[in-house]
Every structure is written in C-alpha cells, then in structure tokens.
Amino acid sequence: MDKPASAIWPCGPVLNCDETGVRVEGKLNCLHTASTPELTYYSIHSKRGGDAMDEMALMPFYTGTAKHDFWKPYFKYRCRHSLCNAHHLRELTWVGSSRTRTKPGLSRCKICCWRSRRRLTSIKTIPRHTWS
C-alpha cells in the first residue's frame, strides 16, 4: 500500500478491531482487521502486535472508540477502548466449564461468572440509551 490507512480510510466513532493467523505461501502471518458498519480494512503482516498495527497506520491516529479483545498491544493507543462482549462470553464459558482444582475463593468467583454469563446470554437487545 502506498498510503497509510489513516490517509485513505474515514473512521467512524467506533472501530471494531480483531486479528487472526493466516497462511500466505505456506508461512504464518497475521491478518489485522478494522471495521465500521460500512467498511472493513484488512492488513496482512508477518508480525502480530504493535509493530504491525503501527505500520497499518490506522490505530496510532485513531481518536474514536476501538472495540477489541483485551489483547495488550491495543492499549498502547490513545483512543478510547471498549472490550468486546463476545470475548467476555468466551472467557466466562471457559471459567464456567473449567474442571481444574481451584483455590477456595475462586469457586465463588466461578459461580458468579457463570451466573453473569447466563444473564448476559439471556439479554436479546440492550436499549441504545443504556450504552455508556
């Protein structure tokens, strides 16, 4: 790409971000995505992390709210951050189904997480006025 993403791509108030491994010519690379309801930006990079996101030249200049998993490299950027509920539910599912021995206090935590997951998955929609 000749121009940085920030120069050619108008960002909305909320930017959904994710990354995943992808093979290119037999080698593992990282596919970084950034999307709004109207547009999706894809960038394949040999690295996964802040260096790759810096080279995409989107996150360093973004000033809205980035919605993402709680992966550490995202938090180095000065935009606002919103954590993805799909990732929260995945983590709560793991905690609720874990069969490993736990410390005494953790059992109560697991029960609380399991109940929270049940409540969250029973919600069909959240009225827009309750968003923070």
List keywords for this structure.
33% helix; alpha/beta; disordered C terminus; single chain; 132 residues; 4 helices; five-stranded mixed sheet; 5 strands
Structure description:
Helices cover 33% and strands 26% of the residues. It contains four helices and five strands; from the N terminus they run αβββαββαα. The protein has helices spanning 5-8, 50-56, 85-97, 104-122; strands spanning 14-24, 27-35, 40-45, 65-68, 80-83. A hairpin with a 4-residue loop joins β2 (27-35) and β3. α3 crosses α4 (104-122). The longest helix has 19 residues, at 104-122. The protein is globular and about 45 Å long.
Dominant shape: globular
Structural class: alpha/beta
Order of helices and strands: HEEEHEEHH
- Work out the number of β strands: 5
- The stretches of 5 or more residues where confidence is low (pLDDT under 50) are 128-132
Cross-sheet strand order for the largest sheet: 3-2-1-4-5
Estimate nothing, just give the exact number of structural domains: 2
Main sheet: strands, sense, barrel: 5 strands, mixed
Task: Give the CA-CA distance, first to last residue.
Answer: 36 Å
- Kindly provide the radius of gyration, computed on alpha-carbon positions and rounded to a whole number of angstroms: 18 Å
Helix content: 25-40%
Question: What is the number of helical segments per DSSP (H or I, 4+ residues)?
Answer: 4
